Amino acid sequence: MTYKRNRLLYSVMIIIVIILGLCSRKMANAIPSFLNTYLGDALWALMIFIAFGFIFREMKTKIIALVGISFCYLIEMSQLYHANWIDNIRKTTLGGLVLGYVFSWSDLIGYAIGILVGVIFEILGGAI
């Protein structure tokens, strides 16, 4: 099944997910710890999934999910590499948000949850 995703809708969804992700960091004390463990990572992966859906608007959902989870996992694996140049990028706000700081196995679970939520929304919404 080939989709034609609505880029305007996907751009709005990206903005909403970014706002939710930033709010989840600011209000970490208000969120239960078991949920907060994965929330930021799940939202980041969801944003990546939506962004790939925006870019590749006619690609199948399962391919978008595979590309999205691979991207998230590669970024997480990159956190095992520490050199001055990349650590200097990580010290910036944007660099830290995109690249992260320290590898964590639990982040991989959060990414899988975020991608799964994106897949479920696309299936239920018919790739709107």
Q: What's this, in brief?
A:
With 128 residues, the protein is mainly α. It has six helices and no strands.
Structure, described:
With 128 residues, the chain is mostly helical. Helix content is 75%, strand content 0%. It is built from 6 helices and no strands. It has helices at 7-26, 33-55, 61-78, 84-90, 93-99, 105-125. The protein is globular, with a radius of gyration of 15 Å.
Any descriptors?
single chain; 128 residues; mainly alpha; 6 helices; globular
Radius of gyration: 15 Å
Order of helices and strands: HHHHHH
Note the beta-strand portion: under 5%
Q: What kind of sheet is the major sheet?
A: none
**How many separate helices?**
6
Choose one word for the global shape.
globular
What would you call the structural class? mainly alpha
Unreliable segments of 5+ consecutive residues:
none
Number of strands: 0
How helical, in percent, are the residues?
over 70%
Mean pLDDT: 89
Distance between the termini: 13 Å
